[in-house]
Amino acid sequence: MARWIPCRRRWGGTQQVAYREGKIVRIVTATAVTLALVGAAAPAATAHQPATAVTLALVGAAAPAATAHQPATDGIWRTDGYGTVLSIRNGTLREYQTTAASCIAGDSAQRTGPGAYTTPDGTVLTIRTRGDRDHASVRLDGDVGERNLRRITELPDACTRSTPGGPLASFDVFWQSFEENYPFFAAKGIDWHAVRDRYRPTLHEGTTPDELFAVFSKMVEPLHDAHVAVRDLDGDGDGEPDRSFAQVRPGTVQPDGKLDARVKKFVVERDLKDARNLQDFAAGRITYADLPGGQGYLRISGFGGYVGGKAPYAAELAELDRALDTVLGQERTRHLKGLVIDLRINGGGSDAMGLHIAGRLTDTPYLAYSKRARNDPADPTRHTRPQPLYVTPAQGPRYTGPVAVLTGGSTVSAGETFTQALMDRPGRTVRIGQPTQGVFSDVMVRKLPNGMSVWLPNEELLTRSGRTYDGAGIPPHLTEPVFTPEEFDQNRDSAFDRAVKVLRD
After folding, report:
1. 127 pLDDT exceeds 60?
2. For 360-377, what is the mean pLDDT?
3. What's the rounded mean pLDDT across residues 199-225?
4. Helix or strand holding residue 346 (H, E)
5. Chain-wide mean pLDDT for the chain?
6. H helix or E strand, kind and range, residue 231
7. Residue 142: what pLDDT?
């Protein structure tokens, strides 16, 4: 489904871990009902079966008043922001990705409980009415926040017509999806209308898929946005596109499994050579050790992928809690003299996991950040009402002493929202290293008529003062090199050494 709901990109091939395409991130795709935001992207239409809008006759108009046998949420709903329409009828939820020029059918989910709908990959969406039958909200299992819904009387006209599947139609949906949702054109100095005027005249109905893929890639290349990707068709049917175009901010390195393994080996052999109680958790994505000076070292390489396969969020959370119960047990937290949290190679994953960990590091509730999305296709300065998201102290043992957070350009997506969630943590928290990647939004995944798809952000995460760190990333308090060739060659880890010194002093 279209991931209008936050999802995270990941690596591997699973949706929960975000190291995919070399990075772990959140995703919001266009084929899985706004719900696919977190789950794996739904299969895009193939070149032999272009995506078309399902007609009104197949879905039905808005449902009448709820009856004893008909849930109050039945009907047709439009999200605030996210360019999505949901149709709920007879136990089936269907998603439509809309722009001013198009409507493309996404995936569906089946009702599995009161207000609960489950996608084929196990992602659970919960829909609740608010006060009256014309307002509701949808929440994705494991997501932070929720999306507001407004009832509409019928599907948009574009959803009752077939969508042309040629290159020009695909170009128009591609361009319009960014025009209506991408928040950062002004900040990046990009004239998106000029981009359209440059590239659309180069296309015609005979343009090949290879040529169209190249055009799309050139159009988004100047954005240097790690939450933007062009994804080709899945010609071999393995669930992954045959090719993708994606890139990170200049001067940074995309996190992937190979880099993660190299850095972990380096850290274990150098930084942790004299440490005690070295232990891996969560399929190796979490590592803990007690340092000689009485500090703890906690390395987190992703916020998900802890169980493997398509495990539900509850199973992922249980595995995380198992790790945290050991790492931050009562005996250890009573004597810990400081904690190094290493996020320098972190591809992202679930923001909710980050808030959950932050809840183990405070005795006092506080604002982590507020989330807003673009909400006017014609005006990039208009947004949904910012939704505040809080860190809530966890039950059981917690560590509230000094923390040193290590970050760098390979700290991506949910790794960055976790970093942001620690900025106003009560107590002493210092960031050391390099600025993070600078991508905080969930990833909106939009299907194109020819079967390709595109990933793009549509949200901003605000600090308490209303600031965002998109583009430049969150800066450190103390700047140190992070895994540069020189650091590797000279067996140095300046950021780690600085963190230990700061905590010791």
Report:
1. yes
2. 96
3. 97
4. none
5. 87
6. strand 229-231
7. 79
Please state the three-class secondary structure of 163-176 as a single string: CCCCHHHHHHHHHH
Is 77 in contact with 151 (CB distance < 8 Å)? yes
Q: Could you tell me if 234 and 241 are in contact, meaning their C-beta atoms sit under 8 angstroms apart?
A: yes
pLDDT band for position 309 (50/70/90)? confident
* String of DSSP letters for 302-319: -BS-SS-TT--HHHHHHH
What is the pTM for the complete model shown?
0.87
Indicate the pairing of strand 244-246 with strand 124-130.
unpaired
For 127: left if phi > 0, alpha if psi spans -120 to 50, otherwise beta; the answer is beta
- Dihedral angle sign, alpha carbons of residues 358, 363, 364, 365: positive
3-state secondary structure 397-436: CCCCCCEEEEECCCECCHHHHHHHHCCCCCCCEEEEECCC
The DSSP letter of residue 245 is: E
Question: Measured between alpha carbons, how far is 61 from 57 in angstroms, rounded to an integer?
Answer: 8
**147 in Cβ contact with 79 (< 8 Å):** yes
Contact at 8 Å (CB) between 395 and 372?
no
**What SS3 state is found at 37?**
helix
Residue 31 has pLDDT above 60, yes or no: no
Give the CA dihedral 116, 117, 123, 129, nearest 10 degrees.
Answer: -50
